[in-house]
Request: fold
Amino acid sequence: MDAIEKKMIPGEHLKFLRQKCGYSQQKVQAAIGINQSDYSKIEQGRRRPTIDQAISLANLFETSLDYIYGLTDMPGPYPRRNGPEFDVTLLIHGENNWSNIFWKR
Reply:
């Protein structure tokens, strides 16, 4: 897959999802708070969504970031957790020196 094809994937997937849901570009841009012109550029492959925009789009279309960015062809969402599965405690010793990671279930 060349760079042009990779750039088009988010746009193609988002257009597919938008049409599947019966939404206009205006409805999508209003739902996620993005300029309609910018959203149109995303669908055309002339712009990529920011991570915050991609998360909002994934939630709106009930899909995964992997699908939006072309890492999978499965448009369904991953199962979501209701809460944290585990707690992480980090003990930091000195600047930028991470050690002793404890996982609790």
Observations:
- Helices lie at 3-21, 25-32, 36-44, 51-61, 65-68.
- The mean pLDDT is 78.
- The two ends are 41 Å apart (CA to CA).
- The domain at 3-68 is CATH 1.10.260.40 (434 Repressor (Amino-terminal Domain)).
